[in-house]
């Protein structure tokens, strides 16, 4: 940004604004700020963050004082910030975990439900205090995390007075001095591996491809590209979506593949594994596509994600074709919930309609992990059948689809990933009858299997992490979602941050 532009934007903020007069019956001050004025203000603040030397001028005196007053208002929870949600958010962002714990316990005892965005933000703030190697950090932050989970899952004790005794008369005791807030349980595996293809060994030996891989993989083409600064939230790297044509991934004939079976994950309500959804050969093909076309990096350029200690995996975004989705959906439909679970607002019941065609394929190498988080919900991605335009939400306006369950497809197994809990998906749950403590349960990847669990604003959404891959290992996994009817079953429109055009159509089992 040039010097003249910086001066113009600074002057625009320091001079009095002509604000519109709010309607007499307006119950709030939301309409006091004109959108153009707000945009100008944000631009000025962003410029000052980038060029702090501009604050040295005398003309900035009033601006600095007003910004300080604004921070005080936000920190003290005045005005719109006097809700419990705002108080918790402010306390966590300032690392005042004792204050946050008091407010969280009040929300817990009053049986109040925050919005999904607040829950996800709180989880990130608590996680920001953990160590870079994935080990637990501040015990008080983890105790806040435990209370967040209890609020999100409605896991109230029958006798709240018992909980108060656990907390202590001042609401703060929680067995001070006990730093072992997270208690790890035995790692679980649905079965011992059957036949698997060691993809990592092939890559190391140079035998993944019989000949140099093509720059454009057969049956795949780019269908959407977003510049880094235009991503939401803004990123340091561009993002490309690749679409596939029917038959791009050769599917093993039904007569030659094992029958899928379902196994519930012990001690993790709502989570289950479906074995043998994909064959090792199909998994190998998908990895070949990503390795041939190339992986993209993912790193937020601003926001709370900057404070996370995750060493993020590289990714490849694939908009799967109808043929592949139909096979996937038919393989898992006998085992999945046919109706959406209840959400935090007490709504639920929409019928399952298919799988989100937007697949995020991740490559985790040595020491890479995805720190504890709650997965967000997604609309039904697809292409406009008339124009070929990529649509983040392709469902019809009067027939919206919204995700309620995460699907994780493991493309390789323990021979590639490593022993112990290397590359596991680890769930964190509140410990029964002991507020302030959590238990962790790890699931070992099995090539070709699918891990399914509730997410978003669903009651029972699971806090989890992609645990670190140990030295010498590599992990390939796909994240996608189960889609359910949303109209008439509570909130169904995508948040403004992800909403784009509505168009195209949805077909049974295809999800766009």
From TrEMBL:
Domain Fe2OG dioxygenase: 354-485
Start-end of Basic residues biased regions: 1-10
Gene3D superfamilies according to UniProt: q2cbj1_9rhob like domain
GO MF assignments: iron ion binding; L-ascorbic acid binding; procollagen-proline 4-dioxygenase activity
GO CC annotation, single: endoplasmic reticulum
Region (Disordered): 1-33
Needed co-factor(s): L-ascorbate
Classification via InterPro entries: Oxoglu/Fe-dep_dioxygenase_dom, P4HA-like, Pro_4_hyd_alph
Keyword Metal-binding: yes
Cell inner membrane as UniProt keyword: no
Keyword entries, A-Z: Dioxygenase, Iron, Metal-binding, Oxidoreductase
Recorded superkingdom: Eukaryota
Protein name as annotated: Fe2OG dioxygenase domain-containing protein
Gene source species: Kwoniella pini CBS 10737
């Amino acid at each position: 940004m040039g010097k003249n532009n910086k001066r113009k934007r600074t002057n625009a903020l320091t001079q009095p604004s002509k604000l519109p007069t709010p309607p007499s019956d307006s119950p709030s001050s939301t309409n006091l700020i004109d959108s153009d004025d707000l945009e100008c203000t944000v631009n000025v603040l962003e410029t000052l963050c980038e060029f702090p030397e501009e604050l040295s001028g005398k003309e900035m005196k009033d601006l600095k004082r007003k910004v300080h007053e604004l921070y005080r208002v936000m920190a003290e929870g005045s005005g719109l910030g006097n809700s419990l949600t705002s108080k918790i958010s402010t306390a966590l962002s300032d690392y005042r975990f004792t204050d946050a714990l008091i407010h969280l316990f009040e929300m817990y005892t009053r049986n109040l439900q925050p919005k999904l965005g607040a829950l996800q933000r709180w989880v990130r703030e608590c996680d920001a205090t953990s160590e870079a190697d994935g080990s637990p950090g501040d015990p008080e932050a983890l105790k806040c995390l435990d209370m967040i989970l209890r609020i999100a899952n409605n896991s109230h004790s029958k006798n709240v007075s018992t909980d108060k005794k656990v907390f202590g008369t001042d609401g703060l005791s929680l067995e001070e001095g006990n730093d072992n807030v997270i208690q790890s349980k035995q790692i679980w595996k649905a079965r011992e591996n059957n036949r698997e293809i060691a993809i990592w060994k092939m890559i190391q030996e140079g035998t993944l491809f019989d000949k140099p891989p093509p720059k454009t993989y057969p049956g795949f083409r780019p269908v959407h590209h977003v510049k880094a600064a235009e991503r939401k939230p803004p990123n340091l790297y561009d993002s490309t979506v690749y679409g596939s044509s029917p038959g791009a991934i050769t599917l093993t004939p039904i007569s030659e593949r094992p029958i899928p079976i379902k196994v519930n994950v012990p001690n993790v309500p709502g989570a289950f594994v479906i074995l043998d959804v994909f064959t090792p050969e199909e998994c190998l093909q998908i990895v070949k596509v990503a390795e041939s076309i190339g992986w993209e990096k993912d790193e937020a350029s601003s926001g709370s994600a900057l404070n996370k200690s995750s060493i993020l995996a590289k990714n490849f975004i694939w908009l799967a074709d109808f043929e592949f989705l139909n096979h996937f959906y038919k393989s898992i439909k006998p085992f999945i919930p046919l109706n959406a679970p209840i959400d935090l607002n007490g709504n639920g019941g929409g019928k399952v309609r298919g799988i989100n065609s937007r697949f995020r394929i991740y490559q985790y190498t040595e020491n890479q992990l995805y720190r504890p988080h709650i997965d967000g919900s997604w609309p039904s991605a697809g292409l406009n059948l008339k124009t070929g335009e990529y649509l983040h939400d392709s469902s019809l306006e009067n027939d919206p689809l919204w995700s309620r369950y995460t699907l994780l497809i493991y493309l390789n197994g323990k021979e590639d990933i490593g022993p112990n809990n290397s590359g596991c998906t680890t769930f964190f749950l509140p410990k029964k009858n002991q507020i302030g403590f959590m238990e962790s349960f790890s699931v070992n990847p099995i090539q070709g299997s699918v891990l399914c669990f509730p997410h978003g604003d669903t009651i029972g959404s699971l806090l989890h992490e992609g645990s670190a891959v140990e030295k010498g290992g590599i992990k390939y996994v796909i994240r996608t979602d189960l889609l359910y009817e949303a109209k008439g079953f509570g909130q169904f429109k995508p948040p403004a941050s992800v909403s784009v055009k509505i168009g195209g159509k949805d077909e049974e089992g295809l999800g766009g």
